[in-house]
């Protein structure tokens, strides 16, 4: 298997076979993101990806159970090409239970629903999607490349085909100025979309990104640990949909996981208790460890 650059994957894919299908991110303009900033985006050839899959089968055997195809927005691949590698992975690994990619709403727009059906039938089980916020002003500020309406409409289009959606919310990305709107609008979008999973991450300034500069120059105001926990509380308090909530990331100040709505009272109680813990007890992770 050949890997180029730093390979990022969601924590939930820690046990998955990682095969790069794309290199970098075709958008690469989110102001907070430093993952692929210096990488020129390209899609690897199907032949190359198949070679890597074969090599993985020879190395690990054929009982691989899950495969994640990095890098950013692999969903952008032509449907025929993505379906070809999914089909091939299924042939090589008969025990496969899950195949997943990264994808955001602006790239869902490029596919018709029957293409998502095709990908589902070829074995695409889940898309990890960084919506970050449901607040349109925040989405504009961070240059996400899509609106809240697109996140809802395009996400629903995917979900209706049976592909699971795992949506990522970035706590604190609205800064101190938009913390309330970011929480309330993100809850609104999640309630309308009802993704299968909602995963929380907390914004950490990443050296070399435009938002890091804004933070350094005092134009962006980072939330304190208590403010981040209160924002999370406001978000969770306003969730009325039904999904699994995870804060499975080292950046978070609050470790709250559970089923919404069943576990919502316990999660809110935990968050309230955390606001009583002195702020000095929370440590913000360095962006190098994200
Ligand atoms: S957050 Fe996602 S879409 Fe935005 S630049 Fe980073 S990888 Fe690309």
Write a brief structural summary.
This is Fe-S oxidoreductase. By secondary structure, the chain is α/β, with parallel strands linked by helices.
Account of the 3D structure:
With 290 residues, the protein is of the alpha/beta class. The chain has a single domain (11-277), classed as TIM Barrel. It has ten helices and ten strands. The chain has helices at residues 46-60, 79-92, 105-108, 113-122, 136-141, 148-159, 179-193, 210-216, 225-237, 264-274; strands at residues 17-18, 22-23, 42-43, 66-69, 98-102, 126-132, 164-171, 197-202, 243-246, 258-260. It has an eight-stranded mixed beta sheet. Helix 2 runs parallel beside helix 4 (113-122), helix 7 (179-193) packs parallel to helix 9 (225-237) and helix 9 packs antiparallel against helix 10 (264-274). It is globular. The structure holds iron/sulfur cluster. Residues 25, 27-28, 30, 33, 35-36, 72-73, 104, 130 line the site of iron/sulfur cluster.
Task: Please state the second-level CATH architecture.
Answer: Alpha-Beta Barrel
> Into which percent range does the helicity of residues fall?
25-40%
**What's the total number of strands?**
10
Low-confidence runs? none
CATH class categorisation = Alpha Beta
Radius of gyration: 19 Å
End-to-end separation in angstroms reads: 24 Å
The CATH homologous superfamily corresponds to: Aldolase class I
- Give the SSE order as H and E letters: EEEHEHEHHEHHEHEHHEEH
Mean pLDDT: 96
């Amino acid at each position: 298997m050949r890997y180029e650059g730093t390979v990022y994957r969601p924590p939930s894919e820690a046990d998955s076979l990682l095969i790069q299908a794309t290199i970098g991110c075709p958008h690469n303009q989110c102001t907070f993101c430093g993952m692929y900033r210096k990488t020129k985006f390209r899609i690897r050839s199907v032949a190359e990806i198949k070679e890597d899959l074969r090599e993985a089968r020879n190395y690990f055997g054929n009982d691989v159970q899950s495969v994640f195809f990095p890098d950013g927005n692999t969903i952008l691949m032509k449907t025929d090409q993505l379906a070809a590698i999914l089909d091939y992975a299924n042939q090589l690994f008969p025990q496969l239970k899950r195949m997943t990619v990264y994808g955001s709403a602006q790239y869902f727009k490029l596919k018709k629903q029957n293409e998502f059906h095709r990908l589902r039938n070829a074995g695409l089980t889940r898309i990890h999607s960084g919506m970050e916020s449901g607040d349109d002003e925040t989405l504009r500020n961070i240059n996400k490349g899509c609106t809240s309406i697109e996140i809802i409409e395009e996400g629903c289009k995917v979900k209706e085909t049976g592909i699971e959606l795992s949506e990522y919310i970035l706590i604190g990305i609205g800064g101190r100025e938009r913390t309330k709107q970011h929480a309330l609008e993100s809850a609104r979008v999640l309630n309308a979309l009802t993704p299968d999973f909602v995963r929380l991450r907390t914004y950490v300034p990443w050296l070399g990104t435009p938002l890091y500069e804004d933070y350094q120059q005092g134009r962006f105001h980072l939330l304190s640990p208590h403010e981040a926990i209160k924002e999370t509380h406001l978000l969770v308090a306003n969730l009325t949909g039904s999904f699994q909530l995870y804060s499975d990331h080292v950046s978070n100040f609050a470790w709250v996981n559970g089923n919404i709505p069943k576990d919502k009272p316990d999660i809110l109680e935990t968050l309230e208790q955390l606001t009583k813990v002195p702020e000095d007890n929370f440590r913000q992770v360095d962006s190098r460890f994200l």
